[in-house]
Amino acid sequence: MQAVVPFGRSLRAAGLAKSSTVDFPGRLSAVVFFAGCNYRCHYCHNAHILDDPPLIDMEGAFAFLEKRAGLLDGVVLSGGEATLQPGLYSFADALRGMGYKIKLDTNGSRPDVVKAMLGGGLVDFVAVDYKAPFRMYGDICMHGADGVGETFGLLAESGVPYEIRVTAIPQIGEEELAEMAGSLPHLERFVLQPYRPVEGGGLHAVQGTWRQRPYTPAELKRLAESVRHLQPNVAVRGI
After folding, report:
1. Considering only Cβ atoms within 10 Å of each terminal Cβ, which end of the chain, N or C, has fewer?
2. Does this model's pTM top 0.90?
3. Which stretches does DSSP call E strand in 46-172?
4. CATH architecture for residues 2-236
């Protein structure tokens, strides 16, 4: 267990899913949910781990991953926002040493970390949550879109598989989605996923008009089709 010491104290994780078939495309994986995030999106389903949640024992988690190496195909670094963790690079490097494939889930706000992970050959797949048109980030996320565009550029040049995910929150209609889709080059994966209301969440942060209910599956498919001319590989997931 000595190998975990260099990064164990600089990682704050609030959960470990020991087996998942849906979080890493084509791979059986474990998912580490890191605590903390610089965004405060009203629809976040992991809001309970964003501030000061109970933490899991990282040495115990590391021991589990050591034991399951060869049985699991990959590890997903998620959150919260994983790129805020000072020890993330060292942790990923240790996982790579065990033979794991690594997926990073991120909001894209830390391009310096993404660049380091890509440069170190420590990620095999990246999923970026594209929250809204950049002009709306302050309202949706309580944080500007600083760094997100740079992260998109890094991924486009990296050769590493990645996807851009958009949650169809009520504030995003055809006009907003077209603005988002049109701001990027054609992607291999541009994924639209349903918004599911969170108890205690709200739309109070955004001034203006918006839908008062989630999109139905049929509406979500039509929304995706409305931007197919901008993103030919648009897909709907989770309906």
Report:
1. N
2. yes
3. 74-79, 101-106, 125-129, 162-168
4. Alpha-Beta Barrel (3.20)
